[in-house]
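Continuing from the previous page...

OK, I double-checked the sequence for DUF1049 domain-containing protein against my notes and this is the correct one:
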Amino acid sequence: MRYIRYTFLALIAICLLLVALANRQVVTLRLLPADLAELLNMPFTVSMPLFLVVLAGVAVGLLVGFVWEWAREHRYRAEMQRQTREKQKLQREIGRLRTEQEDGDEVLALLESSEPSRRAG
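Thanks. Re-ran it with the corrected sequence; updated structure tokens here:
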């Protein structure tokens, strides 16, 4: 299974390398359209290879997807935490009741301890 994973990662790396080699031409990215940038006096431009633009877009898309999914699942995580706290509270209550029962009623404690032998027979 480990070799399949390494093979898959190697194929992805080869594909990314091929995309990078095929798209090495430099492109100019602008924050705003040229006329609006001149009007606002904010001529922000960046020149970089096209493959970096593509890979950065994929990375930003993945990041937005992960954050979106994390936020969407918040209610399920909160419900799970609530149920875990309730379960722990009930387990403490059971332990407390067993301790009280053992201290207070010896007949019930004897009956409870003999139950597995009655079921087995």
